[in-house]
């Protein structure tokens, strides 16, 4: 599935979260994600994708500052 957000919705979020989304030609931001399970209790990989990406980017930033 794809979640699409209007332009400006993520303006006040961490840059690490914003970087997960792809800008569309109309300025909207989209993110593809996986959905599985029964319709009355679906599961997604959104939380895992966001936490892994944010954690990885913050770790890289911290290591860069540590080794400057």
Proportion of β residues?
A: 15-25%
- State the order of secondary-structure elements, H for helix, E for strand: EHEEEEH
Overall 3D shape:
flat
Distance between the termini: 41 Å
Low-confidence stretches: none
Structural class by helix and strand composition? alpha+beta
Strand order of the largest sheet: 1-3-2
Q: Please tell me the total number of domains.
A: 1
Reported for the largest beta sheet, the result is: 3 strands, antiparallel
| Strand elements, count | 5
Summary of the model, kept short:
The protein has helices spanning 15-18, 46-66; strands at 2-5, 22-23, 29-32, 35-36, 43-44. It has 68 residues and is of the alpha+beta class.
Structure in words:
The protein is 37% helix and 21% strand. With 68 residues, it is of the alpha+beta class. The protein has one domain. The strands form 2 sheets. Strands 1-3-2 form a 3-stranded antiparallel sheet, with no helix packed on it. A two-stranded antiparallel ribbon has the order 4-5. A hairpin with a 6-residue loop joins strand 4 (35-36) and strand 5. It is flat, with a radius of gyration of 15 Å. The model has no long low-confidence stretch (mean pLDDT 88).
């Amino acid at each position: 599935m794809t979640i699409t957000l209007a332009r400006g919705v993520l303006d006040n979020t961490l840059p690490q979260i914003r970087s997960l989304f792809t800008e569309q030609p109309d300025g909207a931001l989209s993110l593809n994600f996986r959905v599985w399970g029964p319709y009355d209790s679906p599961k997604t990989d959104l939380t895992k994708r966001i936490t892994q990406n944010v954690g990885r980017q913050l770790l890289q930033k911290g290591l860069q500052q540590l080794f400057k």
